[in-house]
Amino acid sequence: MNTAGIAAKLEEQLVAQGRLAGDEPVVEQLVEAMVAALVPAVRQAAFELAEQAAAEIGAQLPTGSIDVVLSEGEPALVLRGEEAEQAFSSEDLEARMTVRLPTNLKAALEEAADDAGDSMNSFVIKTLASGAARGRKGRRVRETFTT
Fold it and tell me: In the chain, what are the domain boundaries?
């Protein structure tokens, strides 16, 4: 994200507005004071928007997360894979659960499993594992600052 560019545009617009008031030294001083106060606030707002964007996007990901990182003084969004994604094998399948589904949902699951090239059981396990990982992740945002 280019917060410096946004701050420069804001400064340019404020200076242009100040010129509309005429060449009065008092107005120029006020504009300079406003710019000095607003530029840090704009940068802070950009960081907060980045955090909100990361939280909203991350909540929609099936796995992984979005981190807000500081790179060369600017916030950036970084997609991270699910580090602790649980693998399963046929030996792990000890628990049993009966689920009653509407017929149309069962058909949709069968079609999705077929499209994915999985058995119905494997597809449902992967989908449930992904949903459980998302549920654990919630809406947290990890802030990692690097230079």
Answer: 3-145
